[in-house]
Design goal:
Jelly Rolls, disordered C terminus, F-box domain-containing protein, F-box-like_dom_sf
Length: 393
């Protein structure tokens, strides 16, 4: 409706530009009322003067910040093309005046953030974004009760219970945490889902839920390639230390029900996770185990629901302490996997960096499939039987 009114005003002025008619200050106030990136794009398409007004005032970037405040962490945006820039264009860019350079920067930011805004409000369905497990704060019996079990939606695999269990504690206030790597370095996260585990092999079928849940999103400070993850031989305790991460978002605390169902914890707003790491904090313990009179927390299944913004958007990970460069790769979403993987020497340096990161993520996914939790049933086990080791958390 707001856009229709502005377009009518342009016609009614008999050739007078609406921006000149009401003045720049009032025009800015009106443009800042637009809360949909599509409306802002339509406004920029009305005329050359309107487009320049939108570009000069950085309205697209401001709107992205209003939608996701985490966008403010980006100090610079760059456009990455597969082909290296032409020598003549590069020469003009290096020899131009400071005013020309500022104009090009505003044009570039407009292109990047107008597309980012559309991606932030996209109606594409959410999916589970977990790529693999980084580690848990404690594990009772490793690897039988590893965090990797939380990637399985079933509570039984090959007739055996599948869950992660914390270590036992006398103090019910001792927290636990589960840390995951997402399938992209830049994702929009809407909600987290957790299913507490019901110990069907214990008397009374106790449910080992936590009292509350809190979510942290951020990125690793470890050098690229040095982040490890859980294997059957490695619990990966060192990698989950908070000093190895920068948490850019922390959710409120959500109460958890002591029920064996997949419980949804919806974030107050969609959050831009820059860096692809999610930490689920499990706060407080409810259930004691009868055999040792200690409190435990057990999770059957966990999901981090959202949308990846890759491969069109990526972040610069060359410096693990600085995820402030937003990279936009126009048209990358239309490329096939083969197009991205089969790079050649003529591709730009930035494109080679993208390919390297893409291959790294695919390598992680393959390792996760190969080294993930594998459950075997003993030959002597009856269907549905539980061994003595399964009775203790």
């Amino acid at each position: 409706m707001e856009m229709e009114v502005m377009e009518m005003e342009v016609e009614d002025t008999g050739g007078w530009d609406f921006l000149d008619w009401v003045g720049p200050d009032t025009s800015s106030c009106i443009f800042q009322l637009l809360d949909d990136p599509a409306d802002l794009a339509r406004a920029a398409a009305v005329s050359r003067s309107w487009r320049q007004f939108v570009i000069d005032n950085g309205f697209c970037k401001s709107l992205c910040r209003r939608i996701c405040p985490e966008v403010a962490n980006f100090t610079r945006a760059v456009v990455v093309t597969r082909s290296p820039p032409a020598a003549a264009a590069a020469a003009r860019a290096s020899s131009g005046s400071s005013r020309d350079a500022e104009s090009r920067t505003r044009e570039r930011d407009h292109a990047v953030y107008s597309c980012l805004g559309g991606a932030l409000v996209s109606d594409k369905p959410s999916m589970d974004c977990i790529l693999h497990c980084i580690g848990a704060s404690s594990t009772d019996y490793f690897p039988d009760e590893t965090i990797d079990n939380t990637l399985e939606p079933q509570e039984r695999i090959n007739h055996r219970p599948s869950y992660w269990s914390s270590g036992g504690e006398v103090d019910p206030d001792v927290p636990e945490s589960l840390t995951y790597r997402l399938n992209s370095d830049i994702c929009i996260i809407d909600e987290v889902r957790i299913r507490p585990f019901k110990a069907f092999f214990q008397i009374g079928d106790p449910i080992y839920s936590s009292k509350a849940v809190r979510i942290r999103l951020g990125h690793s400070k470890l050098p690229p390639g040095e982040e490890s993850f859980v294997t059957d031989e490695n619990e990966n305790q060192k990698a989950i230390a908070d000093e190895n991460y920068v948490w850019t978002y922390t959710s409120p605390e959500f109460p958890m029900l002591q029920e064996n169902v997949l419980q949804t914890f919806k974030l107050p707003r969609p959050v831009l996770c820059v860096g692809g790491v999610v930490k689920i904090e499990l706060l407080g313990r409810i259930q004691k185990q009868a055999t040792d009179d200690k409190y435990y927390i057990c999770v059957c299944h966990a999901q981090v629901m959202g949308r990846s913004l890759s491969p069109e958007f990526m972040v610069d990970i060359s410096d693990p302490a600085d995820y402030s460069i937003l990279k936009y790769l126009p048209g990358a979403s239309n490329l096939r996997v083969e197009d991205i993987m089969n790079s050649d020497t003529k591709d730009s340096t930035e494109w080679h960096s993208l390919v390297a990161r893409y291959r790294q993520m695919r390598h992680r996914a393959m390792l996760n499939m190969l080294l993930g939790p594998v459950h075997f049933m003993d030959e002597d086990d009856d269907v549905g039987a539980v061994t003595d080791d399964d009775i203790y958390m």
